[in-house]
Amino acid sequence: MTLGISSYSLQQEMNEGRMSILDVMEWVKLQEAGHIEIVPLNFDLLETPELIEAINEKSQQLDLPLSNYAIGSDLLQTGVELSNEIERIKAHVDIAHQLGLKTMRFDVGFLPPREATIVRFNELLPNIVSACQEIADYAEKYDITVSIENHGYFIQQSDRLITIITKVNRDNFKLTLDVGNFLCVDESPLYAVKKCLPYASMIHLKDFYYRKTKHPLNQGFFSTINNNQLRGAVTGHGDIPLPTIISMIKDSGYDGNLSIEFEGIEPCLMATDIAFKLMTSYYE
């Protein structure tokens, strides 16, 4: 296992224009991280293909491995829109290959809590499975393992994730396992991580403050699927039992990468620095 940092953790700096993805890579190297995960939220490598070469050159210059390529996508569409989205994801698989990566994550899609029902899941499951199979089969020619992640309310519960993965039934189709995101659907992280570890190709170490109250708390808090309150925390400072989870990961035999993923309201450079040092101490 190798501990690194997701570029998503520094999204505050990139959104404000203070850092580019290349600047983020330099900062991550200064933290002595083992790798960087590339999450293209405020840049698009389809639209700026010259940045692919720049990222590769920076990776080599810094001796900073790239670990995973994580894009947003929506497979909950139908007809031509779904076909177009599958083709767009395949184009990003090509980019993952150009970056020299062997793992890539795409999204199934988001639904608001009221619509993220098991009835709706069962209705959309055949289309989701078919789309994921097509993408996995395309990625197989590059020996790339593609994955979905537990987020977006709709595909966040451990049982739904495992159902999709087993029905897709491809050796190169797995899970980007975010240890914190299960709280968004009020599922025990300990219980869910243990169930999902056998399917993981990438792990995100994230933390939340979790409050069992129906009253909105504002100031960075948002509602879970059952209207409890969550706020992103410095990884290791929140309510998720990360020392126990990291021990569980180590005992499982998982040998892939782990990324710090911060999405709180604290200044992201400080928060990510603290999180990486703390998780390194747990990891060792």
From TrEMBL:
SUPFAM superfamilies: Xylose isomerase-like. InterPro entries: IolE/XylAMocC-like (IPR050312), Xyl_isomerase-like_sf (IPR036237), Xyl_isomerase-like_TIM-brl (IPR013022). It comes from the Bacteria. GO terms for molecular function: isomerase activity. Gene3D superfamilies: Divalent-metal-dependent TIM barrel enzymes (3.20.20.150). Keywords: Isomerase. Residues 49-264 form the Xylose isomerase-like TIM barrel domain. This is Sugar phosphate isomerase. It comes from Halolactibacillus alkaliphilus.
